[in-house]
Structures
1.
Amino acid sequence: MTRPAARGSADRLARLLNLVPYLLARPGIEIAEAAGDLGVTERQLREDLELLWVCGLPGYGPGDLIDMAFDGDRVTITYDAGIDRPLRLTPDEALALVVALRMLAETPGVANRDAVERALAKIEAAGDLVGAPVAVRLPGDTRRVEALRAAVAGGKALRITYYTAARDETTERVIDPLRMLMVSGRAYVEAWCRRAEAVRLFRADRIDAVTELDEPASVPPQAVPHDLTEGVFRPSADLPLITLRIGRGERWITEYYPCERVEAGDGDQWLVSLRVTDLGWARRFVLGLGPEVTVVAPVELAEQVRATAAAALDAYAVPAPTVVPASTGLSPRPGDDPEHAPSGDPAVAGRTQ
């Protein structure tokens, strides 16, 4: 329930924001006439004008605050501090807000969804956008996200089949859901994983199957949701630290991954140190970067990269056997080269390899 004081403050703020453009359009207007137009008393209008004296842009010094001139009972705005139009949304602004609110309503894990829906309804009504042909869909499998959201809302434990990209493996787990959330455009289920005995994040697009169990979700007291204000991956001292020597073409690594140390090396090379979830992920990461990247540390990672690269080269070391076309039993046509004619003769067939 909105308190009267809060409602009065909100009404006054709206009135002040509309007052400046109103006065700009009517320089020298009498205060009594302005009060009548605005539906307030002269005393209230004078109090609003006194408040405007101390409103303006950050800095709040000369040239930052709203300024006005009085001539008897007449008032003129001489500096508007950028508030030069009424507090009304243009059609484009209203549509942009509708799209943003609809996307917010579709986002998993949003609290106070009812408040979002109420704000959306008000803006659509004010902007004559009710029933506007605007459809918002988040990236990814929307049906899967909706199914997961319903399962999490049901308050039951879930059995999931999950693909872990870092280890390139698929496992079955029983989880006790905490919440659905959206991070960097991807939907996640945050839950207590009974297999890991810890809170884990499960990407919705990597959950291959979900079964709702008969038992209710049982989240232990030590289960604390992650702080995701800086993203899903949070480097910590207990994770492996790798050091790479990179060329100019791979410097983008320092912009896309949280690096603990970046130092200039010989020539255009940089030494970059960063934390990784495990060395298996780091091995695949380095192999995908190309020849301008060299593993400096740890030695174990360098050996894994070398062994994997050598195995890949060995796969191409021996030429693949040539497949001999099967004989058709046809006789060569006049003018055909007998050497390349289809034949069951091994001597002829040998020359076509």
2.
Amino acid sequence: MKEFVSGWAETLLYATLPWMVLLNELPWVGVIVQLAIGFIASVIIHRIATSILEPIAQPFPYSRRLVQYGHRAAWAAMFFLIAQIILRNAPDRLPGVSAVLHIGALCLIASLTWLGIRCVRAISHSIIELNPADSPDNLHARRIQTQTKVLARSVMGIILLIGIGAACSTLPVLRQIGTSLLASAGVAGLVVGFAAKPVLGNLLAGLQIALSQPIRLEDVVIVNNEWGHIEEITGSYVVVRIWDQRRMIVPLQWFIENPFQNWTRTSAEILGVVLVWADYRLPVAAVREEAERICRSAPQWDGRLCQTQVVDATDRAMQLRILVSAGDAGRSWELRCLVREGLIDFIQREFPEYLPRVRTEVVEDQHRDSTSAPPAPPVRHVSLGGR
């Protein structure tokens, strides 16, 4: 028995002796082995935790998105945290340990920043998913989506700035530069302030738009005499989808500093105007009845208003205004075109002689001798078609 134990101990000694010599000659081997073990352990923990959390979080939209979006970033943060602990417990005599420790700290900051951004994105996407804007009455959903997207981008930008600042603060050179700049602040501070003014202005404008909401996604707006929809709101600009499929890019701050029209600020309902010129003899009551008939047969009309009035009168014709109501701007445009075409066809068919006319008086005057001159011809009135 003693011989067996002594033989086993001798075998173990011969097996471990080369590794002991290698550790003495190459001190980084032990740290690398610990890092490899930590990497394998973090991968195993990550897979086990993910497989457990995914079915548990499946019924809950926020938890499901957090696990789906943040599990890789969480694994990276966990591994670099383990690596940071291993490196800080390593002997100080290791060559280059301070540089590796600094690189590990930068990787840990980057992974935590990544994790924070992914978590914010998961929460924002969950809120957008729970408030779809594809329903007819989507005013509340568009308000929530606009707030969520703008605030999420602002929070992600702040997290990124904090991460970059934390990473730069670990560099001694940048700390010295920052100290010298603070010591001689004056002009440098003014230059940095002027340089950062557009960025900060757009950031504050984005927060103000998210909170006060002068515009929302899919709002119908008129910007610089262009009619379109708010297609996208980013951290620095707004994309307006114009009716002819062009895209107008407008800085965020412009919507705070300049007036514009928002046709869906509180409701998508809108009134449309149709103007028709006609002769004074046209019976307005017949036109009113025809306009109401056209509106009743039009699917774009929401049934709120169909009003015909004489709003102007010149020396040649009168102007009829037909006010019609619709559920949104697109339906209003279609309804206005339909009413205009129907009334023109009605007047041409039923009252063609009452189209606008130009009345001209023609007077014939012949300079003859009063004794032989015949009596002056009567004044003739000529009616010329067209306005």
3.
Amino acid sequence: MILRLLTCLIVSLTLSLPSQAVETLRVLTWPGYADSDLVKAFEKKYDVRVEVSYISSDEVLRQKISANHGDDFDVFAANTAELQHYLDEKLIVPLRLANIPNTANQLPRFRNAKNIPGITQLGEVYAVPYTYSEMGLIFDRKQFKEAPTSIAVMWDPRYQGRVLAFNDSSHNFSIASLALGGKPFRIEDKNVKSVVDHLIALRRNVLTFYTLPEESVELFRTQTAALLFANYGRQQLKLLQDAGADVGYVIPQEGALAWLDCWAITRGVKNKNLAERWINYMLDITVSRELTRRQGLSNTIEADTATRETDKIIWLEPVEDDKRRAALWARIISGDLPGRF
């Protein structure tokens, strides 16, 4: 009798104990970088749970990473121009490349971290390149007799109400400066007013400003847009083509801004080994090929055959005053007419 009671007590206690919690990896990234089936494969391989959150702009990314000093996420994707901010604020930690062996399979220009601005500091590597694209122009072939050649087409009154632009302060200031013949990342104080005036003119000429690639595709198709500034590059081109749109893609003569997105680990990472496994998994040849096949984006493992040597590519760099750009852009897009700079 006593033995039976002891047995029941042991069973009861065993059943009441909480099961061992599954470890969770918190990923902050852009749409298309962590498709559910690829995430599930990673979860199964390492017996973990992956919690993916998406962002729509560099500003949102900064807000989410900075909100709790990096404690809310483990690993995230950011372009090289933005990484300098996270380095300066000490929000990311050095990587142990020995734990990311797939970096050895990357193309030579991506393996040499010292030659990539923004990802190293004091001899330590803080980020690993993952994917890249230029921000070209997508146009409706039915509404253009010839492909546009200049970024100035975004201001062309003939297409008023049929232009889609990206809702981002930094990039819009850069392309407006380019359109005026200036430098994209270092706008001098004396030129700020002319750039602001040009952006006000852009606001008046566009249909709207989008944030996510899927949103831009829906707007392009349903609103009979003629032109799209492709912040997400060839990813948007592929989405439109897959949707049956008859579109072309060009690099304007002034050049196209281009981003190189990298994986980095926050200082608040819960399990650095697991975060490094995620980065290594993203660089697996099969996963990288799927990124290119599904999203139309270039990966860092295989050479890009779509880019021509004659295309003028302008890699993103930190800007002269990102806070001023953001403050002015908020006023511009709201319909205000900034009077002071």
